[in-house]
Amino acid sequence: MTTARSCPFCQLAAADIVAGNAFHVVIRDRFPVSLGHSLLIPKRHVASLFELTAEEFNALHELLHITKQQLDTQHQPAGYNIGVNVGEAARQTVFHLHVHVMPRYVGDQEDPRGGVRWIFPEKAVYWD
Question: Which of 5, 29, 34, 98 is the most exposed place for a label (fewest CB within 10 A)?
């Protein structure tokens, strides 16, 4: 497990932060899957979305909307994938909560249907 001392999200440089509020910060992903791929990260070291207080959760929701507005202005994506990995079985690798905001663009995938279902490719195509 990631401890606060070894956590890369607890050691962020101020220059990496593009937005924030009292509870969370936003950075651009260092290994983006799309233009504008961002991470919303609590300032408090928690591993899971389920560990947030109601106040922190509401602040995350507000910051998600602000992040979308910024990305809409900067990059004009056609859609978004929003993702959270919780636990090793869900392939969480950094055990400090981070919410992925991945802008999507027309033509970035040949057939984008199925979205996040592609974590199980054999189950992604459900419309045939």
Answer: 5
Which residues participate in catalysis according to the annotation?
Answer: 98
Distance between CA atoms of 95 and 118, rounded to whole angstroms?
A: 23
Q: How far is residue 9 CA from its own chain's centroid?
A: 13
Query: How many whole angstroms separate alpha carbon 20 and alpha carbon 38?
Result: 12
Neighbours of 122 (CB within 10 A): 6
d(CA 99, CA 45) in angstroms, rounded, equals 14
Q: Say what the pTM is.
A: 0.93
Sketch out the chain's domains with CATH numbers: 8-124 (3.30.428.10)
| Cα(57)–Cα(69) distance, integer angstroms | 19
